[in-house]
Amino acid sequence: TVPNQPIECVPTVVVEDDRTGLSVETLKRAFQDNLFYIQGKFANIATQNDYYMALAYTVRDRLLRRWLTTAETHTHQGVRTVAYLSAEFLMGPHLGNNLISLGIYDEAKQAITELGLDFDALLQQEEEPGLGNGGLGRLAACYLDSMASLDIPSIGYGIRYEFGIFDQDIRDGWQIESTDKWLRYGNPWEISRPEWAVEVKLGGHTERYTDENGRNRTRWIPHEVVMGIPYDTPILGYKTNTATTLRLWSAAAAESFDFAAFNSGDYFRAVQQKTVSETLTKVLYPNDESAQGKKLRLAQQIFFVSCSLQDMMLILIRQGIPLEQFHEKFAVQLNDTHPAIAVAELMRLLMDEHGIEWDTAWRITQKTLSYTNHTLLPEALERWGMGLFSTLLPRHLEIIYEINSQFLDDIRRKFPNDDARLSRMSLIDEAGERYVRMAHLACVGSHAINGVAALHSELLKQDVLRDFYELYPEKFSNKTNGVTPRRFMVLSNPRLTNLITSKIGDGWIKHLDDLRKLEAFVEDADFRQQWRDIKLAIKQDLATYIKQVNGIDVDPTSLFDIQAKRIHEYKRQHLDVLHIITLYNRIKANPDVHITPRTFIFGGKAAPGYFMAKLIIKLINSVGDVVNNDPDVRDRLKVVFLKDYNVKFAQRVYPAADLSEQISLAGKEASGTGNMKFSMNGSLTIGTLDGANVEIRDEVGAENFFLFGLTTPEVYELKAKGYNPYHYYESNPALKAVIDRIASGGFSNGDTNLFNPLVSTLLYKDDYLLLADYQSYIDCQDRVSQTYLDQEYWTRLSILNSARMGKFSSDRSIREYCEDIWYVKPVAVELKEYVQAGT
Ligand code: HBZ
What we know:
By secondary structure, the protein is of the alpha/beta class. The protein has 33 helices and 25 strands.
């Protein structure tokens, strides 16, 4: 490409023109202009989507000056930049969030309303970029918001999947998946940059050669080359000028590469090859918490990692910065092991492509990279079969062998004569079939390793990464997750936001610890009434939605008891179901028994290949069919499964909860982040001592948290002495009655087979100890029901929960990463005075 021309082309933007102005009148004009000139429509034939696009472009125009100025400022100042590498960014809709960040939400609403359109309907029109599975992908999105809001020079690198997480429908109680065509009507937020495309090699073999300086070098002759095209999306910080970039890579065929086919005149075969390359970024793998070992998945990982590292190098090269300074200019965070191949790829690029010696390259690599672990589940730890790995990445395998040989020497020095330790820690699993262990690669190649909640980080040190902790204790730290209050309070809960701001000002939006000031109002009866009225109004809205979509009548004054997250046995949605059936049994035994009216709401997707998770969805819906329609219940219990839970929908759900279910088996949920979103919005939590629940309880106070269940040490102990679930079943009549009702076909029209896999797993295996925790859970739920009867008291707890959630802002998490791991400082971005261009 032609090098940049000097700077005559910096735009002369009128300060208050139709692309920058923030007044209602300017916004109206700009909207109409975009409808005509971008969408190419007169208003009388415009669709809802045209209106959405016109508004989106109006907003994007207002981001651009900030975005470009941010990039220019960072380049000029030569700052150190965070590169957040993540296979997933679960962004959710951009429009509302950008309006909040720009501080023009109300102005835009007024403008659109004055044009006679329904503003909320336009917000709802946006197809969300669902480029993630769950917590891990959403965390990356929250972190971009916080990095921008804190003026941290940063860039998010990931994959532009053509199809994100599948859409979920429910038919006959079962989950049905369909493809997420989020790009169908275009994406107004991204700008493609084909001029910055890079090439990624795959397959083939390696060769040694001697370079012009007489040094031995390695050359990789790939079987295939794929192009990576970057698509950039601005992420504006809240009320600041910093706009960070989300740079997602899309695969395209490198047409010129397949010269063999071209030379033999096989034009069609060469063109066909294009579709192979382009499938690389077609679809997000929909599995959370399980590694699948598919070749395409490894190809996706090397693809986005190589593109991103090459991109960083090009940024330095364009500025004339030597690559020996790579680690001074970039702090690269690996979001789980999905980008862990970066260890080998950075080595390869530095050595093979840029001629840097091994030792220097290794020092740069370790100083650059850091690794976040998100799971304790053994089945979720990524390992790649040697056959697959060597076929796709022959050069990386050589590098990994060399890293491993030096690494094992290091262990031998520190722990002589400990062969068991060597084989436990090796980057290669050689127990049976051989595998590359990605978590080990990440640990060796990084200067910092962290877990995502205090308990999780401790368990990593004691268990999953114990050997690595013994070798490098100084690398380990904890960074408790956080969530952005901009999206999960201000945008999703405007009513509560306004009430809070009316009492304590709006400083809390950037300094969430300020929420503590709400504690002063806990004894104010008017305030409590307002707090309650708001919750009721939000529940009313959700009830209306449930009526529309599920056709179920729910009572907005009943206790809204919500579990919303991916469906997984360790998260124990079925424990929640055991509680529902327990209450149902009490009613069947005595229809006049006192029951606090509850609405049980579930949302979440199951991995398409995860049979048990899908059966749990079927069970929830089947129990709902029985309970919701039994006249004995007299509408005191309702069970609702909300289909297609995603970010857009989550924003409506969190504010509507009275009770948040965080009931995973202790030691299994790394952190959880939904737990934080619920609590900020005034929900109380029922939960185990797992993940970040532990810290939430510490913050809000034990008396304001419904705790139940075994602790992690108790879980280990029980398993060690031989856990027998059947014993709990036999000795607890209420539990037995619940299981028997399922097993005898009470929720399957007498079919005793349907739920048998679930029932027998619980009775004879029960890896997640539902039966052991059952009674403690039921007792705790009875306390919840009792507490809810005293609405004044409940409201106090609800206010205190919100007031004490300051710690769980992602701003706090990002500050800790900056100080302890990245060594990156905020950089203020000042908007230049543009020359007034006149008319
Ligand atoms: O990461 C989640 C943890 O389960 C949760 O406890 C934590 O709060 C959150 C953020 O730290 N993990 C995931 O969401 N994991 C995945 O989505 C995933 C996706 C693809 C995989 C494996 C896991 O191959």
